[in-house]
Amino acid sequence: MADALSSLLNGGQGKSTTLSPAQLGKLRGQAQQLEGLFLNTLVGEMFSSIKTDQSAFGGGFGEETWRGMQSEQIANSMAQAGGVGLADQLMDGLIRAQEASQNPSQPQVQSQVPGVNS
After folding, report:
1. How confident is the model over 38-95, as pLDDT tens digits?
2. Domain limits, the chain
């Protein structure tokens, strides 16, 4: 049962880890928050391209005030419902970084982005 929970919190990747379910849950929440921030930026940019000031019911100060909150809530809902898979992709790196910080004898986590660790 613990392995199934670990796999679920680990983004379903099925990799074993030395982290507790509580630690995995915290990392999962952080990954979802980061995905929510990304989606908030994406949704905000999408809404900024809509010309609502030309319609009879759109535009104005009220819409500008609430548009940011609306895009934030939409983005958070998207992230909690599975998002675009960014949180799942982040989990592997977050787990490796957390395990490396708990075991200083392990080599440092290397980025898979070309030129970052050069």
Report:
1. 999 999 898 888 777 766 666 677 777 788 888 888 988 887 788 899 888 999 999 9
2. 29-98
What are the distances in angstroms from CA 92 to CA 14, 50, 69, 78, 88?
A: 11, 36, 30, 21, 8
- How far is 11 from 111, CA to CA, in rounded Å? 19
Asked if residues 32 and 9 have their Cβ atoms less than 8 Å apart, the reply is no
**72 in Cβ contact with 40 (< 8 Å):** yes
Q: Looking at the chain, how many residues does it have?
A: 118
Where do runs of H (alpha helix) occur along the chain? Answer: 2-9, 21-48, 61-80, 86-102
Distance (Å, rounded) from C-alpha 6 to C-alpha 25? 9
pTM: 0.64
Q: What are 73-89's pLDDT values in tens digits?
A: 898 888 778 889 988 89
